[in-house]
Structures are given as structure tokens and as C-alpha cells.
Specification:
Number of helices: 8
Distance between the termini: 26 Å
Radius of gyration: 20 Å
Shape: globular
Helix content: 25-40%
Largest sheet: 6 strands, parallel
Strand content: 15-25%
Order of helices and strands: EHEHEHHEHEHHEHEEEEE
Number of strands: 11
Length: about 280
């Protein structure tokens, strides 16, 4: 019915405290880091490469690209966008030993496109060519809880400092299968973003604890990373239907659940089912 995910930027030391909070409440997040800005003796504010792997990735959270140098794509030439994104992806894949496909735009991202720099369509094309699956943008906090129609302009629900954040959470939690906003028919996503160091700066870690507590422990919510949500949506979009919509085939590696004729069905990976009885 519903999903919750988190996205936090820059690989700062406060991420360790945030990971501990997410783990405490059974939540999952995506942490967006810059590979040329890892912590060291001169930059103790940021996590080391080893900490990113051991304290974030190895604990089940996603690590995604955030530009090797944290440079806004809208302020770079196309070749610079490619270099900054690819260098970050290559560095993370070497560090983590896995395929890295997620991204959050660094700095002003695609909100401020400067003359002579790559426009959004060119940036999107570059990310597709670099096999980046999605990229989070900013600037549209709202309580619509919608999935993106364009994963390269993925707008989160809200920043954690949004003055209406607890109203948004209450509205999301109250969405039920039998109301007019039925999440079983129209999937809903609560997507929170920010920087963990903001809690240190503002002395309000209690705010994040309250957010986690209010969002956690719901039987009708899937707690997932950004890439898990992306891949599930793409699996759903890949279902192959018969002309009369009475048969469906799942060519993906992910089991998919869907609503049809007032019933919930699951079509497993590689399976073809009939809608009448759910079996073949």
C-alpha cells in the first residue's frame, strides 16, 4: 500500500547517528556521498571510505552517488557532468564491491541551469548513458506522496525541517485501503531528505527521533531504500498483459503485487497467472 524512504547527503559523521536511529526503528535510507571528499586527518567532519562501507552499506542501507566533487550539474558543461558522475560511481563501486545506480543531485542540481551549461534534457541523457537509474532533486515539498513520473527528477515529500512535517506524516499514516485515496490502488510514498549534520547544528536530534517513531512500525508500509523502490516500480511497469487483461506475465526477477477487480494478486518472478483465480 505505502512505502517510506530516506535520503541524506554528503557523507558527514552525523550520518552514523542517523543510521543508528534508522536501525533502531526498522527504517531504511539512501546515503549520497562524494568520493573525492571522504574524511581524513585534515577533514574529520566527513566519514572515511571505510566507514561508509562498514557503517552504512554493510548495515543494509543504500550508498548512492552525489558527484565526486559535489558540483551542480546545471553549472557544468556536459563533459564535466559526465566526469563528475562517472568518477563518483566508479569510486563507490570499487569501495563497496557492488553496482551503484542511485544518485542525488549535488548543490543546486537541476534547479539552476546556467547559460552555456548542460540543460536538463542533456543531464538526463548523460545519466541514462552512465546507467544511473534515478536522481533526487529538490524544491517541491508537499503532501501528495506521489511516485515520480520521471525518476531523473525525483521530488521528495519534504525536508525534515519543513514546518508541516508532522502534519504530512499524520496524513500519510491515516491513508487506508478503503478510503478514496486508496494506497492499494494508487501507491503512496513518504520520502524524507536532508543532511544529518543539520541536527547537530540545530541541536534537534529529538525531531528526527520523533519523525522516525511516527513513521515506523506500520504493517501497511514497506520500508525501503531509494533503489529498491525504483526497481519495484520498474518491475511493475515491465509486466506483460494479455489483450483482454485477464493474463499477466512477470519477466523480471522481482515478485510483483497488484490490485485488480477488487482483489490483490501476486505474480512471481518468471510466472504467468490468470486474473480470475490467480493461477495457471
Amino acid at each position: 500500500m505505502k512505502a517510506v524512504t530516506f535520503s541524506y547527503d554528503d557523507g558527514c559523521r552525523a550520518d552514523l547517528k542517523l543510521v543508528a536511529l534508522l536501525d533502531k526503528y526498522g527504517l531504511k535510507g539512501t546515503f549520497n556521498v562524494n568520493t573525492l571528499m571522504f574524511g581524513n586527518d585534515r577533514n574529520a567532519w566527513r566519514l572515511t571510505a571505510e566507514e561508509v562501507k562498514q557503517e552504512i552499506y554493510d548495515k543494509g542501507h543504500e550508498v548512492a552517488t552525489h558527484g565526486a566533487n559535489h558540483r551542480a550539474p546545471g553549472k557544468q558543461r556536459t563533459i564535466e557532468v559526465i566526469r563528475d558522475t562517472l568518477d563518483c560511481r566508479l569510486g563507490l563501486e570499487k569501495l563497496l564491491g557492488t553496482i551503484v545506480r542511485g544518485m542525488a543531485y549535488p548543490d543546486s542540481g537541476i534547479r539552476n541551469i546556467q547559460v552555456g551549461c548542460a540543460d536538463y534534457e542533456k543531464i538526463r541523457e548523460c545519466l541514462c548513458d552512465l546507467d544511473i537509474a534515478y536522481s533526487r532533486t529538490l524544491g517541491g515539498d508537499n503532501d501528495s506522496f506521489e511516485l515520480p513520473t520521471d525518476f531523473y527528477a525525483w521530488m521528495p515529500t519534504a525536508h525534515h525541517n519543513n514546518e508541516h512535517i508532522f502534519e504530512f506524516i499524520d496524513k500519510f499514516n491515516l491513508l487506508k485501503e478503503d478510503d478514496k485515496y486508496s494506497a492499494a490502488k494508487i501507491p503512496k510514498l513518504f520520502y524524507l531528505w536532508g543532511h544529518a549534520y543539520e541536527f547537530d547544528n540545530n541541536g534537534n536530534w529529538n525531531r528526527m527521533e520523533e519523525i522516525c517513531e511516527k513513521l515506523s512500525g506500520k504493517d501497511d508500509v514497506w520500508y525501503a531504500t531509494n533503489i529498491e523502490i525504483h526497481d519495484y516500480v520498474k518491475a511493475y511497469e515491465s509486466l506483460i498483459w494479455s489483450a483482454d487483461a485477464r493474463m499477466v506475465y512477470n519477466p523480471t526477477l522481482i515478485d510483483v503485487w497488484f490490485w485488480s477487480d477488487g482483489r490483490i494478486f501476486c505474480v512471481k518472478s518468471g510466472e504467468r497467472i490468470g486474473i480470475e483465480d490467480g493461477t495457471f
